[in-house]
Amino acid sequence: MDFVILDLEWNGTYSRRLKGFMNEIIEFGAVKVNEDLKILDTFSALVRPQVGKKLSGKIKSLTNLTNEELACGLQFMQVISRFNKWMGKAVLMTWGTADILALTENCKYFCGNERVPFLKKYVNLQSYCEDRLHYDVNKRMGLSTSAQLLGIDEQSFEHHRALDDSMLSLRCLQALYDKEAMKPFIQNADEKVFYDKILFKTVVVCDLSNPLIKRTDLMFNCEFCGRRAHRESDWVLKNKSYRASFLCRNCRTRFYGRVQFKLKFDGLVVKKTILPFKEMEAKETPTVIQTKEIRAVARDSAKPKEGVPAAKTAKLPKPVRAQERSIPKEKPVDPPKAKEVKVKPRYRYPPKKKAKTNSLHPRGN
Ligand SMILES: [Zn+2]
């Protein structure tokens, strides 16, 4: 089994036909390796733009490509057909799924194909490398970050050119490769569910009456004594998550509970965070305890039911895809690290007697 690591460069451009923005692929770069990751061959091709005839300034400076160079490129369809032949039955690998999204978009636009012809088996190298490096599951690891963590000298690669980026991805893979560990990452990409998953847009649920939300999602336990805390305020929606203040009637600890609901393809992701009471007001949000639960849901339950207003179920995404997708390609950048300081709550009083507390204040949220 051979692997092909593919990287694409694209240019965000307006399409009159689509009446919106699209990411038009301008360069293919790929390296083919065998099962032991020995290089067998490389592929490199420029694509003559047909939608956006002029490169954006950002892409020009990012890639050092010129409009003149691209004008000598092949048509997208020709490149697809050559790449398809060159790739054979190899497993396709890309760093993150952004390139797959761009491929899907371009194949649909230029060929009317809903699927990418050479996409049969697929590995998301980013997921594989994140897993091998035990990277924070809540974050995405950019290619540069990965190279840095692995001590790979990026300077020897021409960044943001397709072939070089595919080579850099290969170097990361070589540093972390294990035949057995790779196996579960090989996905069958020749089926509808693969595309459904890739094209799925995560929705933040901003409605507490959503039937996917359980009552217990809104309950918080005291991090000191473990008792269920009493909610003292209403839930307030801020930055796409809900917050309320809580009091532990057992040990008198006061804190903020924050909960966020994200509807992903695999289900509802519930992220709960406990924040110290005072620090929150000072606009600092050190994370004390964070739990995350992914609850599988039936695909249909996410969609608004007939006869039920959309607001009662998941708040559906605004049609922002075109806008989002028009952003020129940049490998994902890791967000600034959240402070993970353990702060003792300021409002902590000697615990009351257990029995008394329980009888006076039945526990609830
Ligand atoms: Zn307590």
What topology does this entry show?
Layout: E1 3-15, E2 20-33, E3 39-46, H1 57-63, H2 67-71, H3 76-87, E4 91-94, H4 98-111, E5 121-124, H5 125-132, H6 143-149, H7 162-176, H8 179-182, E6 187-188, H9 192-199, E7 203-204, E8 230-231, E9 236-238, E10 241-247, E11 254-264, E12 267-276, H10 277-281, E13 289-295, H11 321-325, H12 354-360
Helix pairs in contact: 5-7
The structure holds zinc ion.
Provide an overview of this structure.
The chain has helices at residues 57-63, 67-71, 76-87, 98-111, 125-132, 143-149, 162-176, 179-182, 192-199, 277-281, 321-325, 354-360; strands at 3-15, 20-33, 39-46, 91-94, 121-124, 187-188, 203-204, 230-231, 236-238, 241-247, 254-264, 267-276, 289-295. The protein is α+β, with helices and mostly antiparallel strands and 365 residues long. The chain has 2 domains: 3-199, Ribonuclease H-like superfamily/Ribonuclease H (Nucleotidyltransferase, domain 5, 2-Layer Sandwich); 203-360, no CATH class. β1 (3-15) and β2 (20-33) form a beta hairpin. The radius of gyration is 25 Å and the shape is elongated. The model is unreliable at 284-288 and 298-365 (pLDDT under 50).
